[in-house]
Specification:
alpha+beta, 8 strands, Alpha-Beta Plaits, four-stranded antiparallel beta sheet, about 40% strand, q64v53_bacfr protein fold
Length: about 160
């Protein structure tokens, strides 16, 4: 699946204010455009029955239109890092903890991506914990989504800590 993800930045606050993304999913022959204000669920439009060649052409056209409209892809400097630590009962996750961690990572990815806020980049072990590293476009708004993601995943908030940087 090919994806193009772009953002428009405000000159006054030097932060992304709007996002646009599009992808072509060959498996279901769909071209999807998703856009909105950073931190909001946004709007999704889907075109079905798109063949591979047309999908790639639509992506190229979408990318060109975004550039023309003042949107751009993110650079590494545009990201703010968040580390979400999930405290374990022992030094390695139990089977229940592994299941909850998968659910938490999936739900966090879902909540952040559909709001143009970022994504979980990596999951790594730590001392009696597992850390989810998030590259966020807006750290405060991304951090605000973590409790809802944890609740949906069935994870107790008392087992999670969040650090910036």
């Amino acid at each position: 699946m090919s994806i193009v993800r772009t953002y428009r930045f405000s000159e006054e606050i030097a932060r992304a204010t709007d996002y646009r993304e599009a992808w072509y999913d060959e498996a279901v022959a769909e071209f999807v455009v998703h856009f909105g204000a950073v931190g909001q669920p946004g709007t999704t439009k889907v075109e079905s029955n798109i063949d591979s060649e047309a999908g790639e052409e639509l992506l190229a056209g979408f990318s060109a239109q975004c550039i023309e409209d003042g949107y751009r892809e993110l650079t590494e400097d545009d990201h703010q890092l968040l580390t979400v630590s999930y405290r374990l009962k022992g030094s390695t996750p139990t089977s229940v903890e592994e299941t909850l961690l998968r659910k938490l990572e999936t739900e966090m990815t879902h909540r952040l991506a559909w709001r143009g806020l970022g994504e979980v980049q990596e999951t790594r072990p730590a001392d009696n914990a597992v850390e989810l590293l998030i590259a966020a476009v807006h750290a405060r708004k991304a951090e605000a989504e973590i409790p809802a993601a944890a609740k949906t995943a069935g994870v107790q908030l008392s087992k999670i800590t969040v650090a910036r940087g």
